[in-house]
Amino acid sequence: MINPQDRFWSDSQGYYGPSESPATKTYSDVWDWDQLRMVKVKGTAKIFPPDGDVELSILAPLADYLSPEVRAITVDDDGLLREVSTDPEEDDTMFIAYPPFSLCGSLSDCRTVQYSNLQELDRLGPFVDLTSLPPHPNIVPFDRAVLEEESRVIGFTTKYIPGGTLANPNVPFPFEWLQQLTQLVDFLNLDYGIIHQDIAPRNLLIDPSTHKIILFDFDRVAFGEKNLQDGRDDVSSVVFTLYKLIANDTSFSGIPHWERNIYMVQSISEWTSHRELDSEVSKFRKFLDEWVATRRSDVDGDMKRYLNAPNRLTLLDLPTAPEYTVPFEMGTRDGKPVWRTGRRSRNTAMNLGQYCFRWERSPQSRLLNNAESNVK
């Protein structure tokens, strides 16, 4: 089941006036990873200050009870529900033109499965994606490409690993898993020129059959200089991950990655353990510090090794879905309509008659209740 803390994500926040004025009307688009839908939360700046993420806590207790047709809710200055809207114009969900399988040459030899033939067993976490990598005992393997009824590629399946993730603080953490993680990072960064950019306890599975940790969720991956994000290098991520695993301290998670540096945790004199370990904390820290020193001894040299990795993958350009070449009207200029091509909202695509795959589904709580009723 998706961790309640990870279920909602605020996509954007807008103000119809100065954000400093409590009376300014505002809105936030909130994505619900459980139901795979977007709900616009509206109110005033009094209850929605900039960067407050208040909209998440307001939507959370309401989400499971909203009709699938609801596109927006409005709350008063006390955070109480005042109004719901089913107006499609309130829906800011972006349109995704999934490419036909026939255009995806790199997947021509892959096994496929129809989306309609998949049976949901559980919802493990939000935003689970995978990119193609060489086989490795600590990387979750690719299984099949998922096709919808028009044979468009909408996703991928991977091998199911039943051991859960390291986000569970009750899972013991042996020293060998730290060794596996640092070896994996060196393998990705220095052998294949890949930076994961999102190493965290929630993205580390435990394979009970091999007693190894498995890295997944490669949606932020960087190849060479493409997609590199400041503060998301894997060495820094390993440092913050180990500290979070040992100390169960989430205080650094709320700091933007571009404002973090490893000295914040390395300078903490004592890491008080709140997790079962098979060795003293000092052993973990000594190994980590030595590994970081090796990787950071020559920052320019480390980056050069990454950029000139001997087994760098050759990436094919993503096929352009033909739907994006269809022009759509986007406002007017000098009294004349302005036409654009490229990305568009789902509502715009539907008005043009373009096919839109709909991911929306019932909340998992409702599915669990139905399952319990059937058992009784």
Task: Show the helix and strand layout.
Elements: E1 8-15, E2 25-32, E3 37-44, H1 54-59, E4 72-75, E5 81-85, E6 112-114, E7 142-147, E8 153-158, H2 175-191, E9 194-195, E10 204-207, E11 212-215, E12 222-223, H3 234-247, H4 263-266, H5 281-296, H6 299-307, E13 328-333, E14 336-340, H7 346-351, H8 364-375
Parallel strand pairs: 3-4, 6-7
Antiparallel strand pairs: 1-2, 2-3, 4-5, 7-8, 9-12, 10-11, 13-14
EC number: 2.7.11.1
GO molecular function, one term: protein serine/threonine kinase activity
Region (Disordered): 1-23
What can you see in these coordinates?
By secondary structure, the chain is α+β, with helices and mostly antiparallel strands. It folds into three domains: 4-94, no CATH class; 101-158, no CATH class; 164-308, Transferase(Phosphotransferase) domain 1 (Transferase(Phosphotransferase), domain 1). The chain has eight helices and 14 strands. The chain has helices at residues 54-59, 175-191, 234-247, 263-266, 281-296, 299-307, 346-351, 364-375, and strands spanning 8-15, 25-32, 37-44, 72-75, 81-85, 112-114, 142-147, 153-158, 194-195, 204-207, 212-215, 222-223, 328-333, 336-340. It has a five-stranded mixed beta sheet with strand order 1-2-3-4-5. The protein has a three-stranded mixed beta sheet with strand order 6-7-8, with no helix packed on it. A hairpin with a 5-residue loop joins strand 7 (142-147) and strand 8. The longest helix has 17 residues, at 175-191. The two termini are 22 Å apart. GO terms for molecular function: protein serine/threonine kinase activity. InterPro entries: Kinase-like_dom_sf, Tyr_kinase_AS.
